[in-house]
Structures are given as C-alpha cells and as structure tokens.
Write a structure and sequence with these properties.
mainly beta, 2 helices
C-alpha cells in the first residue's frame, strides 16, 4: 500500500511596499517673515514621510533644482542597502539637475521619529529636509497616548546656504537669524538690517507662529 503525503507549506506575506515622491524645487518663501530663496519638497517646508515598521519604501527624488543634490535618510540603518544611504559623493554620485533617482530600502524593525535631508554641501540649510516617521503597529506604548503631534525645530538663516558655508570658519557654528517651529518663525522687522532683502513679518501668521490644537483630555 502506498500513502501519498503532502507537505504543508506556509506562505509568508511580503512586507508592505510604500511609494513616495519628493519633487524638489526652489521657491521664494518667508518662513520667519523675511523673504529668501528656499529649497523645498512637494511645495512645502518640512514635508513628512509616514511608513510602518517592516515596510519596504521607495522614494523617488525628482531634482527640479538648478544644482546637484542627494537625499540622506538620517538615523535609518540601511542594513542591506548601504549604497542608498544618500551621502553625496560618498555612497552615491549626486543627482543632476533634471534627473530622477529612486531610493528603495527596508525599514526593518526600526520605529520612531527620524528625518530626511539633502546631503550635498549645506543645502538642507535652505530648507531641503523633513520628518521621516516610522509607526509601529505593535507599539508597546500605544496605551499611554491618544495622538501624535510632529514638531520640527530648525535654525533659519536669512543668507543662502552657500553664503553661510562660505563664512563657516574655524569650526565655529554660524549664528542663525531665527528659529522655526514646523516651518514658521518670527522675526522683528525693527531689527532687520539686511542688504536688499524684504521683511514682511507684519503678516498675521508671523505674529501667531505655529499653533498646535490640543484637545482637553487627550494625551499627546
């Protein structure tokens, strides 16, 4: 007598694959009330990328700037794809103006708050940066908060990144003109002594600044 035995096969689901695009461009903005040319992604400052632990992500960077660039994923391990770390002229050639590059990498078991930013010269000083949030579906602390609020803090210079870098001497950090919270700051025009630049900080948004709506009884 012959018995036919069928081995049980467990099919493992592939990790989710999420896709993002960073359209890089230059815009005349006034993050603290003083106009300056800034480098941004998808027409906003601090563009946030959201993904989950275990995801594979593909981020297509479209370089609409007039200079080369690269994007670094700050704090991410890049265990299996170190060549996609984004350090320009170290792990990759720079992305030329008008060119496109797609970064595809696994987030592994990481979770938490990270950020992405340009890694070419000092471009991120001009605004080319943003949060990279990795949510953990099995977050062991999920029971102690009700919602998450992203807060970004950054220095803001009225000079261009190139000018700031050119004046960076003896390893002393240059002093920023103001600070930004989620891309908005405040600068008093009475103290403005710039050469040919325009201060418009009388605009209401610069008087109020960034506002976080917090609901009574909810934990953030």
């Amino acid at each position: 007598m012959m018995l036919a035995l069928r081995a049980a096969t467990k099919v493992l689901a592939s990790p989710p694959h999420k896709y993002f695009t960073l359209n890089l461009s230059t815009r005349l903005l006034a993050p603290d009330g003083v106009l300056k040319q800034m480098m941004i992604a998808n027409d906003v400052l601090d563009y946030a990328i959201h993904a989950d632990t275990g995801d594979t992500v593909s981020v297509t960077v479209v370089n609409g700037l007039d200079e080369p660039t690269s994007i670094h994923w700050h704090g991410l391990y890049m265990t299996d794809t170190p060549w996609l770390d984004g350090a320009g002229m170290v792990t990759q050639p720079l992305i030329k103006p008008g060119a496109t590059l797609t970064y595809t990498f696994s987030l592994g078991n990481q979770s938490g708050t990270f950020w992405w930013h340009s890694h070419a010269a000092s471009q991120y000083v001009n605004g080319l940066r943003g949060p990279f949030i990795i949510h953990d579906p099995l977050d062991p602390f999920a029971s102690v908060y009700d919602e998450e609020i992203i807060v970004t803090l950054s220095d803001n210079f009225h000079k261009s990144a190139a000018d700031v870098l050119a004046n960076y001497v003896n390893a002393f950090d240059p002093v920023p003109a103001s600070g930004l919270v989620n891309g908005i700051g405040a600068y008093d025009c009475d103290f403005w002594t710039g050469d040919g630049l325009v201060c418009i900080s009388s605009d209401p948004q610069f008087q109020v600044g960034t506002v976080f709506d917090v609901v009574s009884g909810k934990r953030c």
